Amino acid sequence: MTSAEAFMDRVRSRDPNEPEFHQAVAEVVESLWPWLHREGQRYLDAQILERLVEPERVVSFRIAWVDDAGKIQVNRGYRIQMNGAIGPYKGGLRFHPTVTLSVLKFLAFEQVFKNSLTTLAMGGGKGGADFDPKRKSDAEVMRFCQSFMTELQRHIGPDTDVPAGDIGVGGREIGYMFGQYRRLRHRFDGVLTGKGPEWGGSLIRPEATGYGAIYFAQEMLATQGQRIQDKTVIISGSGNVAQFAAEKCIALGAKVVTMSDSSGFIHDPAGIDSEKLAWIMELKNVRRERLKEYAEHFGVEYYPGQRPWAIPCHVAVPCATQNELDSDDAKQLLDNHCMCVVEGANMPLTTKAVAQLQSHKILFGPGKAANAGGVATSGLEMAQNSQRMYWSRERVDGELHTIMRKIHAACCEHGQRPDGSIDYVAGANIAGFIKVANAMLAQGCL
Ligand SMILES: NC(=O)C1=CN([C@@H]2O[C@H](COP(=O)(O)OP(=O)(O)OC[C@H]3O[C@@H](n4cnc5c(N)ncnc54)[C@H](OP(=O)(O)O)[C@@H]3O)[C@@H](O)[C@H]2O)C=CC1
Ligand SMILES: N=C(CCC(=O)O)C(=O)O
């Protein structure tokens, strides 16, 4: 019988320079292995896990574009179509200088389980490029997006592969890519989500990931008779996910005391209220400036080059990037009696940090479950596009909340420990696996 270690050795030796992908796979394999050998012989016989860790398709392409100085720039783009067993490939596009094949394969692999958990018909994929939108003019971003989509459009479609936003890809980038798709394919398709509400976008989609993470946190806290109201919350990031996680916390009566960007974090002990958050949204979404300005404007502390995890809190919500919270940070959270960690970002905790929290039975919501609200609402946008209809904010938010409750329930069903506590990592991985594995069994050897 192959061991989990032997399985991972094969994954690592097959693609030796993909540490982020190996990290994402190892977490799933560790969760699934005992369960598979207890209850999943049919999946073992069909080599489901062996097939899950191999993308169905990977495309890579050159992106040449002209900057404002008239100089030709060259970037590398990708689309990973990881698994389409339960629906068209669905997953974000990341524009960031740290984008590599390994990073996008980890994101695409996580997306397979996340999309399965949403209960909607969406397979898993991810894409992006090593382009840095920061300090680029709108015209440069537009020309890059047009060049990127000129290549990507060969591989996507509303019933094939539907990309969306992620780090560095917001409403502006989605708009430029949608326009280029429409020009080249001469069709108005629901081929991207996160579109503007005037041209097929769903209300609540911008808010959805952050809102959903806090809805999931509410469900976790409720298992211990706790509410997020009056809790102190620390958040990392100050982009799309962080902004709306903060907005939902504030609306529910929690006190948000930190936010960050890649230059450092601000600590506002009085709490970031809705007016201060509106100021941050204008700083980040309109002026595209650094969070340091907040500290100067509101007279609070700024910590350059640091992350917020040593600030005492009840709830921690990492919403920046992968591996932003390591085992030292996890120890700080535990020493400060943090009771709940919810991953708004994808894989923000290192493997050791996850193990540390899990060994202390702290409430820990992994990203594939906790941040699934974004892609779930993308699925709701696809449903509206198919109907050529628009749903109200209230209806979309209600559907989002219901989906987050269902994801939480699925994690509880498959992650209950003997002492009654919930292992959300195991629960999410097993629940996400079953639907995809059954579809793969039914569809034969491919
Ligand atoms: N957008 C979505 O629909 C979803 C996103 N996610 C995940 O949430 C996280 C944030 O995404 P999103 O909010 O959309 O992205 P944004 O680009 O809107 O914001 C990213 C934030 O993280 C910070 N950041 C990015 N890279 C680093 C880094 N290497 N070190 C420190 N800080 C960094 C950015 O700071 P700076 O501005 O200085 O770069 C910014 O504050 C990602 O992990 C993403 O994969 C998960 C589910 C859905
Ligand atoms: N970036 C996203 C959102 C993907 C989507 O909305 O298709 C994610 O789930 O990580």
UniProtKB/TrEMBL annotation:
Instruction: Locate the coiled-coil region(s) and give their ranges.
Output: none
Where would I find the Glutamate/phenylalanine/leucine/valine/L-tryptophan dehydrogenase C-terminal domain in this sequence? 202-444
Q: Which GO terms describe its molecular function?
A: glutamate dehydrogenase (NADP+) activity; nucleotide binding
Q: At which positions is NAD(+) bound?
A: T209, N240
Question: What does the record give as the active site?
Answer: K126
Q: Where is substrate annotated to bind?
A: K90, Q111, K114, G165, S378
Listed CDD domains: NAD_bind_2_Glu_DH
Q: Name one GO cellular component term.
A: cytosol
Organism domain of life: Bacteria
Q: Where is this site: Important for catalysis?
A: D166
Keyword set, alphabetical order: NAD, Nucleotide-binding, Oxidoreductase
GO BP: glutamate biosynthetic process
Q: Does the keyword NAD apply?
A: yes
Family membership: Belongs to the Glu/Leu/Phe/Val dehydrogenases family.
Stored NCBIfam families: PRK09414.1
Q: State the name under which the record lists this protein.
A: Glutamate dehydrogenase
Instruction: Give the organism, scientific name.
Output: Enhygromyxa salina
